[in-house]
């Protein structure tokens, strides 16, 4: 009996050890399961923006605000000119070009004021704009500014010179002196006109100007 009891005890011990070796550690299994459940999902990519094309017809007005100065006495031909839309361009109730859209161009003509004749003039043309990171070629009407005529002022200067000369001549030499004085005074007034240029044309940053499209312009707009 003792012999059989020993055999049964040994068999029981072997069975317990075998069963224990085939099972996973509960704590380890729980840890692995939890790690898998907590892994964050990859973020979804935002949808790509959708665009549509809108065509601005010929004749569309572009109200602009200058960012750079232009002047008949300082600007040079081919010098860059920068501006921005001071109002949005709207088509069918939808904004196509927002206020602040950058517009660029170049100076095309410069004429300083003459001493005898010829008024000051400055001309420029915008040929591109940038919207939503894209640059577009633009066909727009040129802008030109000309100084006001000064003929009236010139005539006044000559008349004042002649009048002053006549008064002095009359005091010094009677009738003949008045005639001579008038001629001398008139000549002096003419000399002042020849030595003085007329008004120049100057537009600084912030000046409001307006042009229009001379050809249709197609722009990509976000939906």
Account of the 3D structure:
This protein has helices at residues 2-21, 26-38, 151-195; strands spanning 51-56, 61-66, 70-71, 80-85, 89-91, 94-97, 102-111, 121-131, 134-137, 143-146, 202-203, 208-212, 217-222. By secondary structure, the chain is an alpha+beta fold. The protein has 2 domains: 51-148 and 198-222, Lipocalin (Beta Barrel), CATH 2.40.128.260; 151-197. The strands form 4 sheets. Strands 2, 4, 7, 8, 9, 10 and 12 form a 7-stranded antiparallel sheet that branches. A two-stranded antiparallel sheet has the order 1-13. A two-stranded antiparallel ribbon has the order 3-11. Strand 8 and strand 9 (134-137) form a beta hairpin. The protein is elongated, with a radius of gyration of 45 Å. The termini are far apart.
